UniProtKB/TrEMBL annotation, chains A, D:
The chain crosses the membrane at residues 21-39, 51-69, 76-97, 103-127, 134-157, 177-198, 228-246, 258-275, 282-302, 308-324. This is Ribose transport system permease protein. InterPro entries: ABC_transp_permease (IPR001851). It is found in: Cell membrane. GO terms for cellular component: plasma membrane. One of its GO terms (molecular function) is transmembrane transporter activity. Keywords: Cell membrane, Membrane, Transmembrane, Transmembrane helix. Its main location: membrane. The keyword Repressor does not apply. It is a multi-pass membrane protein. PANTHER family: ABC TRANSPORTER PERMEASE PROTEIN YPHD-RELATED-RELATED, RIBOSE IMPORT PERMEASE PROTEIN RBSC.
UniProtKB/TrEMBL annotation, chain C:
InterPro entries: AAA+_ATPase, ABC_carbohydrate_import_ATPase, ABC_transporter-like_ATP-bd, ABC_transporter-like_CS, P-loop_NTPase. This is Ribose transport system ATP-binding protein. Belongs to the ABC transporter superfamily. PROSITE patterns: ABC_TRANSPORTER_1 (PS00211), ABC_TRANSPORTER_2 (PS50893). It comes from Microvirga lupini. The lineage of its organism: Bacteria, Pseudomonadati, Pseudomonadota, Alphaproteobacteria, Hyphomicrobiales. Keywords: ATP-binding, Cell membrane, Membrane, Nucleotide-binding, Repeat, Sugar transport, Translocase, Transport. It comes from the Bacteria. Its main location: membrane. Pfam families: ABC_tran.
Length: 332, 292, 506, 332
């Protein structure tokens, strides 16, 4: 009996760890089985591709949120930031006016610049003002949202040049070897995010900061820089999400991105990242975003829930999905 | 022999009074139509924002629908997603907030947002002639903007002046607060345009509390049954209302179903003009059993 | 005499790792029973089992001869068994009095009676020889003060068995002496005391019997008569421990590497000045609260400070620890749990955290280099871990200290400031750390040792600067190093009087 | 010479603590001065009474949130819970039908019972399911909201008996010696809250739980009971808020209580309670709720902000208010 003591130990623990990381996937699978039972159309390739494609915006934003949250922060402004970025991007495209690649590239650049700047603003106020991120980003959420309303004068900001729209369309609707572009975008963002979080000193510093700020400080981690950078990364992710979003609906409105912050945070938490910081699971986050979209999809595909009660069923499913996850790694 | 038809209905979620009414009518009408036309299946889906509505359209098409009845969250955003559905050969019925590209729709059941603002504005110009009014607008959206700008156009040149306006989000509580503050801020207000009956109710409560006598009347809109009743009863404070019935969803669904089950193909535009409800015609607009 | 608490054949495994095997121990009323052993031997684990914090994997407990299982620490407390943890377990946001009475508040008319609790807190702390303000939040206390609060909390409930897990590690000798008074009083009241310490002289002074553990096994239980510290050390370590302190290396040069002039850390330190030479081991002594920690945190940029710091003839000012590290100065915090290690992360991540740049290839961290460094650290610093996948928080207390040392040494600093280097470290490891510090000095590095252990300062340092009340009270040269000279500077009075003051009989 | 051994400086500390507790008040005063400068009407008694009266709902709910948050929890469902409670209360009143005190009393009892039950549900799922409170209450937020919409069948739930309404009206519009009833209600709730949080063992346990759960457990604090109770208290506070809310407009709609959770949490944080738990400041919370309402009031009273930009200015003011607070206790 004793000989097993040391030898089996690493495997066993690995296994445990893996269960935690795996549990969002298991919840997703359970959900998919439920979906298939409710409506056979659920499992068609086209439906599944649709669902995953749609989850791209939130998934990309949530990758950024994983950085912020695992460093112990929070960003409530992402939805408004997305609206503002989309608005300014469209205005840039409209003012440039041409329907060519370079116009598009400039517009995209502008989008990323705007969202990165918004992230920077969040980061600086939080680090230098030393105010709870909750309050700061609640404040900037109002600010960014209002700016869109103001830019749109209460109405809509729409891409005017329809040729440009056609040129831009494939970024949402196109595919590469059958894989829709948004899916590729979000896989790439997640892969880069994972690389940064798990393989660079910066990523290590993010986790250290979220685990224990004092220890990080005493270890020479440049706290302020790291914290500000997490918000900039969040901003850039919002920018990328907008790049994929704009070709889909072609306009920005005062209600664009409403409640995306809640969805992004939910995706992160479902994915296994703790709100208190110190843990970050990029792939879990991505699965979390897909879960949210699958739940919404099942709601549309199912036909026995009164429309008034959809929200209730959706809420219940999310709680149940978390219970499934819990029971998967109960052992720990 | 029975004909199998599936109609998908996509409307905004029941987030406040009017949309709640719309969902109610959609669900009721669905049941009614399915009973009326054996073989017909109606799937009603609601969405809380433009992007989700685009998703819902995808998902409805996945269920192979023959016709789509859609009340777009927002004209600009939903134009392309509806176009995608159209490409699959689906019959398209658009309600209320039109699409940017009218060629997409086969049937259009129009609500009249510009008219909604214009008629109210005209009433103020005609009745009040002279005076200071405050405006409570809805949620920042295109249709809100259409209503308010047309209202302002309609009072242009008259002696009626908008001295203040704020968003109150089609919400009673917000309207109550904004109105309280308007009353603190302005010593004399001659009348109030609340652009929606939910908001008008909050406004009335605030006025009652402040015991202010200067305000001659409040005009809401959309024909909530309580308000229509007050018009009918000759309430001085609520002299008129402007229609904007959530039941236009029902109309659109009926027309769409008829397209499949009656001989005459239904195409074209059905305008439900915004109408001024006055004491005289109020009983035609009073439906005590509707939830709205 | 009948035993009050008896453990029979206790084994404990965490997952597949067995950390205690077949330990038996019996505890008699009115005895002080010391448990000693190397870091990681399983002392704390055993204490946790005896006090209901952990269930044993095998074996049984007997209270007054009756077999018993505790559902948890609260249950054990109800049976009169309390444990003073090695780590600080207090709610940081509550005040001292609130912590003392947490879960057993005194009530009057349904409401908490803060006045009564405050008075009782004051009284108990007074008995322990300290005047800590009962209304102070625990997060604002020094570690030593927190430890005293923790002891006070344990003594508050009616008890038959009190276990102290390294209570004196963070205390100065004067405070330790008040604790021994308490322990003797407990004994005279018929209470059984379990006592863990790496300070073998203390064990000799207070214990009646001694149990030695090694690698989770029971090695011996002996009466204290005739058991000298040297023999205890041999039993613990398994080899002779004749010489604790290494030869002091020559102070190689007169070359001054660091000059600190008139530095002030607002609220803590005023006008502190000293110099540090190449190849020197400079001690810093003083009572708790003298401001040594804050002085050096100020110097390395972890607190705001002003004054002149000259490093190799250049005036410097560090904005944060990173800048100090870049200049070759590292500071190892005395608070290894709060400021030293990420308890929720594994050993590898902790080890490389401060020196990540050294593990980067291009933009990325070289995981295999980290693994190699961990292997080396485990070997060089003799970190006892039965699985290298543990989280830092799962290491035994002493091994955490070693990990912290290893982590900071990866920076290859020129000037090393170690705050309480051997706190909670076993005697064998102590010797290793001392040798390590001496070798650093021999290599020409400069080392500052802040320590509350007088013997350590005397045995290890070339010179000792003593602080009192936020100021430098004086300096003791190598030739004059003695406990008395340090204590005199630290208190301003001679030793006996200092003890009286500390005990509050001033 | 005693000070040699102990060099603590209690005086200095007292002062610090007081500054922290005072800082929300100072922020409020600064804000009021700004308000007075912007529009002299701001300082009229009627305006100030209006504003404070309006803040009653959020203040009362936020008192409950102070318990939840200082124990380390979070409740996003309060807004929906308020709507559901209001809806069920009105339905009860309508079905009883009479216009007398006992009907009213029964309705009120029903309201408190419903909201306490909602709180209990939150608490049980969180403690026994061991799921992040964020997710659980996001789920129940959807559930409670949907139930109102369903009960109202999309429309509005309105008090039908107008005599009963008149009877009930004074609970919002009445006053006692010139002090509006809602203000009295919220002062009483805050006072009781403060009494419970600061003067009972339960309150002590709440803070201990938020400060360090392990310590609380080892100290014999009944973790589960305490945690569940905080959510029940939150529920009861929502119930009380509803009692004051219903007589105002006499109805519950699908938008009743929308975003109240955000406002309540903001009030708590502005008041000086940390989101990570371990600190609870009831009076700060109450001031926080008033601050929020004052900011909104100033926005309407001022003449130079376009309605499009109200949200931006509001967001900025909240951030600035926090900066003012910070600078007040910079010393730390
Ligand atoms: N939760 C845990 N999981 C895995 N291993 C653990 C856990 N807790 C303790 N250990 C291991 O158990 C062994 C004994 O630890 P323990 O804390 O009892 O040692 P100790 O004798 O108190 O040492 P020290 O003198 O350093 O405090 C160590 O190897 C430690 O790493
Ligand atoms: N977080 C804090 N806030 C306020 N005061 C503190 C805090 N931490 C420590 N103090 C106080 O600062 C003084 C100095 O602290 P500390 O005990 O760390 O000094 P020291 O000389 O390093 O002693 P030692 O190293 O023996 O603990 C003490 O009076 C202590 O109570
Ligand atoms: O939701 C809106 C409603 O409140 C308003 O009155 O009419 C148009 C609707 O879209
Ligand atoms: Mg130990
Ligand atoms: Mg110190």
């Amino acid at each position: 009996m004793t000989e097993t003591v040391l030898r089996s130990s690493p495997e066993k623990r690995r296994f445990n760890i893996d269960m935690r990381a795996l549990s969002p996937f298991i919840a997703l699978i359970v959900l998919m089985i439920a979906g298939a039972l409710i409506n056979p159309d659920f499992l068609t390739a086209s439906n599944l591709l649709n669902v995953v494609t749609r989850s791209a915006f939130i998934a990309i934003i949530a990758v950024g949120a994983t950085f912020v949250i695992s460093s112990g922060g929070l960003d409530l402004s992402v939805g408004s930031m997305a609206a503002l970025t989309a608005g300014l991007m469209i205005l840039t495209l409209n003012s440039l006016g041409n329907a060519d690649m370079s116009t598009l590239a400039l517009g995209m650049l502008a989008a990323i610049a705007v969202s990165a700047a918004c992230g920077l603003a969040n980061g600086l106020i939080i680090t230098f003002g030393r105010i709870e991120p909750f309050i700061v980003t609640l404040g900037t959420m109002g600010i960014y949202r209002s700016l869109v309303i103001w830019l749109a004068a209460g109405g809509t900001i729409t891409m005017r040049n329809s040729d440009l729209r056609e040129l831009y369309r494939p970024v949402y609707f196109g595919d590469i070897y059958g894989v829709p572009v948004p899916i590729i975008a979000f896989l790439v963002v997640a892969a880069i995010g994972a690389l940064i979080l798990y393989r660079t000193s910066f990523g290590r510093h993010v986790i250290a900061l979220g685990s224990n700020e004092d220890v990080a400080r005493y270890s020479g981690v440049p706290i302020w820089r790291v914290r500000t950078l997490t918000y900039i990364i969040q901003g850039i992710c919002v920018g990328i999400a907008v790049l994929v979003y704009v070709p889909r609906l072609g306009s920005a409105t005062p209600t664009t991105g409403l409640l995306w912050e809640l969805q992004a945070i939910t995706a992160v938490v479902i994915g296994g990242t703790a709100l208190k910081g110190g843990v970050g699971r990029i792939w879990g986050t991505v699965v979390g975003a897909v879960i949210l979209e699958v739940v919404a999809n099942i709601m549309v595909l199912s036909n026995f829930v009164s429309e008034f009660l959809v929200g209730a069923v959706q809420g219940a499913i999310i709680i149940i999905a978390m219970l499934v996850q819990r029971s998967v790694h109960r052992g720990r | 022999q029975q004909k199998n038809v599936t109609i998908g209905v996509s409307i905004p979620a029941a987030t406040h009074g009017w949309t709640g009414g719309a969902v109610y009518h959609a669900q009721e009408t669905a049941k009614e139509l399915e009973k009326m036309y054996p073989g017909l299946k109606v799937i009603v889906k609601t969405s809380p924002d433009g992007a989700s509505q685009a998703n819902a359209l995808d998902d409805l098409t996945a269920q192979k629908i023959d016709a789509l009845v859609v009340l777009p969250f927002n004209s600009d955003e939903l134009t392309n997603p509806v176009r995608e559905v159209k490409k699959k050969g689906t019959l398209i019925t658009v309600i209320d907030r039109g699409l940017k590209d009218p060629t997409i729709q086969d049937i259009y059941v129009a609500g009249d947002n510009p008219g909604f603002g214009r008629i109210a504005g005209k009433y103020f110009a005609d009745t009040l002639k002279q005076g200071n009014i405050v405006v409570l607008r809805g949620i920042p959206t295109v249709l809100d903007e259409e209503r308010v700008s047309n209202f302002e156009k309609a009072i242009e040149g008259s002696g009626v002046k908008v001295i203040d306006k704020q968003y109150a989000n089609w919400n009673r509580d917000d309207a109550f607060k904004v109105m309280q503050d308007f009353l603190s801020k302005h010593q004399k207000i001659d009348a109030v345009w609340a652009a929606d009956d939910d908001m008008a109710l909050g406004v009335l409560e605030a006025i009652r509390q402040a015991k202010r006598e200067d305000i001659k009347f409040v005009v809401g809109g959309a024909g909530m049954k309580e308000m229509v009743k007050r018009v009918m009863d000759g309430d001085k404070m609520i002299p008129v209302n402007v229609t904007y019935p959530p039941a236009l969803v029902a109309t659109a669904m009926h027309v769409t179903a008829a397209n499949f089950y009656t001989k005459a193909p239904m195409r074209g535009t059905f305008v439900l003009n915004a109408q001024l409800i006055t004491k005289d015609n109020a009983k035609d607009h009073y439906f005590p059993n509707s939830p709205f | 005499m009948d035993s009050v608490l008896r453990a029979e054949n206790i084994s404990k495994s965490f997952g597949p790792i067995e950390v205690l095997s077949g330990i038996s121990l019996d505890l008699k009323p009115g005895e002080v029973h010391a448990v000693i052993g190397e870091n990681g031997a399983g002392k704390s684990t055993l204490m946790r089992i005896l006090s209901g914090h952990l269930p044993p994997t095998k074996g049984s407990l007997h209270l007054n001869g009756q077999p018993i299982t505790f559902s948890g620490p609260v249950d054990a407390e109800a049976h009169g068994i309390v444990l003073v943890h090695q780590e600080i377990l207090l709610a940081p946001d509550l005040t001292v009095a609130q912590n003392l009475f947490l879960g057993r508040e005194i009530r009057r008319f349904g409401f908490v009676d803060d006045k009564a609790m405050r008075e009782r807190t004051r009284a108990i702390l007074h008995e322990l020889g300290t005047n800590i303000d009962p209304d102070r939040e625990v997060s604002r206390l020094s570690i030593a003060d927190r430890q005293l609060v923790q002891i006070a909390r344990a003594l508050l409930v009616p008890h038959k068995v009190v276990a102290f897990d390294e209570p004196t590690a963070v205390l100065t000798p004067i405070e330790a002496e008040s604790l021994f008074e308490i322990i003797r009083k407990l004994r005279s009241q018929g209470v059984a005391v379990l006592y863990i310490s790496h300070r073998l002289n203390e064990v000799k002074a207070v214990a009646d019997r001694v149990t030695v553990l090694r690698d989770g096994r029971h090695i011996a239980t002996r009466g204290i008569e005739g058991l000298e510290p040297l023999e205890m050390a041999r039993l613990m370590v398994g080899r002779d421990m004749s010489k604790l302190y290494p030869e002091k290396p020559e102070t190689a040069s007169d070359q001054i590497v660091l000059t600190v002039r008139d530095i002030a850390v607002p609220g803590y330190v005023e006008n502190a000045s000293f110099t540090l030479r190449r190849g020197e081991i400079l001690g810093f002594g003083g009572l708790i609260g003298a401001g040594r920690t804050e002085l050096f945190e100020g110097i390395v940029g972890l607190r705001s400070s002003h004054g002149t710091i000259t490093l190799d003839d250049r005036n410097v000012h560090f904005g944060d620890a990173r800048e100090a590290m870049a200049a070759g100065i590292v500071y190892l915090s005395e608070d290894r749990k709060g400021k030293g290690l990420l308890l929720q992360q594994n050993l590898r991540i902790n080890l490389s955290l401060a020196a990540l740049d050294r593990f980067s290839r291009g933009s990325f961290i070289d995981g295999s280099a980290e693994e190699k460094a961990l292997d080396r650290a485990i070997k060089d610093f003799d970190i006892r871990t039965r699985s290298r996948d543990l989280l830092a928080g799962q290491l035994s207390g002493g091994n955490q200290q070693k990990l912290l040392l290893a982590k900071m040494m990866l920076l290859e600093p020129r000037i090393v400031i170690i705050d309480e280097p051997t706190r909670g470290v076993d005697i064998g490891t102590k010797e290793q750390i001392y040798r390590f510090i001496a070798s650093l000095a021999a290599e020409g590095k400069a080392v500052v040792v802040i320590s509350s252990e007088m013997q350590e300062l005397i045995g290890l340092c070339h010179r000792v600067v003593v602080m009192r009340n936020g100021r430098v009270a004086g300096e003791v040269a190598q030739a004059d190093l003695s406990e008395d000279s340090i204590v005199y500077l630290a208190t301003g009075v001679h030793e006996e009087r200092a003890a009286e003051i500390a005990a509050g009989h001033a």
